[in-house]
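Appendix B, example 12.
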Amino acid sequence: MVEKFEGIVLRTLKYSDSLMIADIYTRSRGRLSFLVPVSHSRRSRVRSVLFQPLSMLSFTASYKCGKSLSRISEVQPYQMYSSIGCDVVKSSIALYLSELLTYSLREEGGDESLFNFLDRSFTLFDNLENGFADFHLVFMVQLLRYLGIYPNIEDYNQRCYIDLRQGCAVNEHPLHGDFLMPQDAAPFVELLRTGYDTMHRLSLNRGLRGMYLAILSDYYRLHIPDFPQLRSAEVLRELFD
């Protein structure tokens, strides 16, 4: 049956000379994969150029539960970005976040609160004129809450270690290598407590920004099965260097 969707593009893959596959996180049904005809004509009801990383689309598809690939028959933007596609820093961050979400959001099934978080986050990101160099770090922290793997830091004090495997603050030295020493835990906890409204206070240099990116990437790999080294992370490191 034909169904209307709102969704955020995670990635696209070539399927054939005339079709591509789009992985999209939808408001109503979570992550789904769709067949998209490759067409650049302005008269086409499905323009493949619209399927850029993190694009927010409204579309119709002949969806059938249990069918691996449904074909999109009509699409249009439901939220137009004004700066993400034309700012080199923002487009690089968007590429990284789309890859992050590709490997983090794997389940079907709608999650209205998660979808609204993504929608709100990327709209905010697009509207920021400055102070967005650390947006990807704060986004990664906030996403942990919706994935159910946010670290337990309620009992944190300055003598605590952060056990990355267990996802919590502990008073004793862990017996494995996936942890932060107390001197490194303190600034990391500050990052964990940072929201979009306070991220301008971080003022991170490139060394700290790279360190936090590595720590958060390790945390995702420890808590999400088969989470890989993200290829676009190197693009971010080179960009900020």
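The radius of gyration is 19 Å. Residues 206-223 form the longest helix (18 residues).
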